[in-house]
Hints:
The chain has 120 residues and is mainly alpha-helical.
Amino acid sequence: MRPLLFCALFRENTPEQEEKMNEEKLLQYLKQFCKGKAHTKRSEGIESAVGISGKELRKLVNRMRRRGVPIGSSRDGYFYAVTAGEVYSTIVQLRVMANGLEAAIAGLEGSLDAFGQGEL
């Protein structure tokens, strides 16, 4: 992490400013090139166009969705949702993923019993 003094002296953006700029670039890209499910773009293409990593893309999408930005997704990539149906299909997909995570957590919690018995 860069010290704020360094950023001020050399006119570099703070990490927060950089994140905000990336968010704005992502939103503009999605609205211009990925409007509607028919124009879904793969993660790699968006990362390259916006200049961010896959990890940063997922983080930004999550944050923007939490604020109500209608970013849809499918196995094929991301898109800017233009209908309620596109938003709903993304919600269904996210619920399936959440249920899978809950099942994995339950399985791991069940495995904890073996640690008490000295098996693992």
